[in-house]
Write a structure and sequence with these properties.
Rossmann fold, 3-stranded antiparallel beta sheet, 9 helices, about 240 residues, Arc Repressor Mutant, subunit A, 6-stranded parallel beta sheet, globular, alpha/beta, 2 domains
Length: about 240
C-alpha cells in the first residue's frame, strides 16, 4: 500500500468515527503500531487531525460545528450519559442542551418518573417523544448543521423556566473555562446556566484543552463530567475555583 493511500484511509476512518485509536488503525490497515503513529504525526503536522492520548480526532474546520447527523454516538458519550443520570431525580425539571453528548443522555431518562424536559435541541425531539415525557422545545433560530435553536428568541424563551438540573455541552474546555464557536449559542447556554439549581457540563476527552472563539462559562459554574479522568491542570483549576 502506498503511503498516500494509508493517509487517505486513516482520514476516512477518522471522518466516519470522529475519533480513532491507534490499535484500530493497526487492525484495519494491517500495519505496525510504529507506522500508524508516524502516519498520525504526519497528518497532525499537516493540520488534518489532532493527536490525543492513544489516537486522534478530526480538526474543527474554521471552528464550525460538525453536522449532527455525521456524528457517531460512541461509547465515550454513553459513559458520560450513564455518569450523568445520578443528578436527576423524580419530579425534576431539566434543561437539555443541543448536541450529541446531551443526546446520548435521552435514552436513560425514560425510567425517571415525572420529569419535565426543556431543550433547544430540535434534533432531540424524536428521541424525546419516544420516551413519553413532558417536553418543551424552545423557539429560536435553527442551526441546520447541529439542530440547535439559538439566538435572542431562544434565550428569551428560557427566561420563563427554572431548572433543577441543567446539562450543557461545549466545544472546548480548558483552565479558562468552557467555550463555543457560536455567539448565538453563548446566549442560550449562558441563560440556561443562570436558571439552574445545578449545572452539569458534559464534555468528552477530545474537548480537553480546546479553546473555541467564545467563552460562555467558567470552571466554577458547574460540575464537569467526562468519559475519562480530567487532565491534571483542569482538575487543579477546578479545585482552585471552588475554594
Amino acid at each position: 500500500m502506498l503511503t498516500v493511500e494509508r493517509y487517505n484511509l486513516i482520514l476516512k476512518l477518522i471522518e466516519e468515527k470522529q475519533n480513532i485509536k491507534v490499535h484500530d488503525i493497526v487492525e484495519k490497515l494491517k500495519i505496525s503500531e510504529a507506522t500508524a503513529r508516524r502516519d498520525l504525526n504526519f497528518l497532525e503536522d499537516k493540520g488534518k487531525i489532532k493527536r490525543i492520548h492513544g489516537g486522534a480526532v478530526l480538526v474543527e474546520t474554521k471552528e464550525e460545528d460538525i453536522g449532527f447527523k455525521k456524528l457517531v454516538f460512541n461509547k465515550e458519550k454513553d459513559i458520560i450519559a450513564k455518569k450523568s443520570i445520578k443528578f436527576i431525580h423524580e419530579g425534576d425539571t431539566i434543561f437539555l442542551d443541543a448536541g450529541t453528548t446531551t443526546f446520548a443522555l435521552i435514552k436513560y431518562l425514560k425510567d425517571i418518573p415525572n420529569i419535565k424536559i426543556v431543550t433547544n435541541g430540535y434534533s432531540h425531539i424524536n428521541e424525546l417523544t419516544a420516551i413519553n415525557k413532558e417536553v418543551y422545545l424552545l423557539g429560536g433560530k435553527l442551526k441546520k448543521k447541529t439542530g440547535a435553536l439559538v439566538g435572542f428568541s431562544a434565550m428569551n424563551s428560557l427566561k420563563t423556566y427554572n431548572f433543577d438540573v441543567v446539562f450543557i455541552g461545549a466545544n472546548g474546555v480548558n483552565t479558562e473555562g468552557y467555550s463555543t464557536p457560536d455567539e448565538e449559542e453563548v446566549l442560550v447556554k449562558s441563560e440556561a446556566i443562570k436558571r439552574g439549581k445545578q449545572v452539569i457540563f458534559l464534555c468528552d476527552h477530545t474537548k480537553f484543552k480546546n479553546k473555541s472563539f467564545f467563552n460562555f462559562a467558567s470552571l466554577n459554574d458547574g460540575e464537569l463530567i467526562s468519559d475519562t479522568d480530567l487532565p491534571k491542570e483542569i482538575a487543579k483549576a477546578i479545585d482552585k475555583a471552588k475554594k
